Amino acid sequence: MSLRPSMAGGEQIARDLEDILRSAEELRRPIELADARLEDYDAVYYLGDHGPMEDLWKDADSGRLLTAAIACHAPVAILATRRNGLSPFAGYRVTAFTNDEEDAVGLRERAFWTSEDELVKLGVDFTRGEIWKPYTVVDRNLYTGQNPASAAPQAEEILKVLK
């Protein structure tokens, strides 16, 4: 659904994203998170969507990487950093797929939990933009985007510091 033009920011953007995904050889052979070494990378970037909600929110290796880097996307992945009820991300400003967007795609009623609800419980300062519009938040070295339309503006923000 992320490639639907209405969610991606338009027809051309959806086509461009699809072309990029098809040509990304690295995506065909991902490494295991347990094998990831933070020193081999310039940034930790998690793609959002429901994938992280299924497995990354509780993955210990993911939590280890994020706690070490304190920089990511897919804000639900930071749920794995919680130890004894506390997270190093508590108090950070973040954004993620909102409850309103979950309602709009008809998935909130089927979900066991939502990004917005769990991030608020984690103690972050959850902020939001207009539904389906690009909206990114940068707090310290944490870069978060609200929805698929936020991916390109968020990448631009990250590239500014990686250059």
Commentary on this structure:
With 163 residues, this protein is mostly helical. The protein has 7 helices and 4 strands. A hairpin with a 2-residue loop joins β3 (136-139) and β4. The model has no long low-confidence stretch (mean pLDDT 83).
Topology:
Layout: H1 5-8, H2 11-23, H3 50-54, H4 60-69, E1 93-94, H5 99-104, H6 115-122, E2 125-126, E3 136-139, E4 142-145, H7 151-162
Parallel strand pairs: 1-2
Antiparallel strand pairs: 3-4
Q: Characteristics of this structure?
A:
mainly alpha; 7 helices; 163 residues; two-stranded parallel ribbon; Rossmann fold; globular
Q: How many domains would you count in the coordinates?
A: 2
Largest sheet, spatial ordering of strands: 1-2
CATH superfamily of the largest domain: Class I glutamine amidotransferase (GATase) domain
- Mean pLDDT, to the nearest integer, reads 83
The CATH architecture assignment of the largest domain turns out to be: 3-Layer(aba) Sandwich
Query: If you consult CATH, what is the topology of the largest domain?
Result: Rossmann fold
| Percentage of residues in DSSP E strands | 5-15%
What structural class results from the helix and strand content?
Answer: mainly alpha
Outline:
By secondary structure, the protein is mainly α.
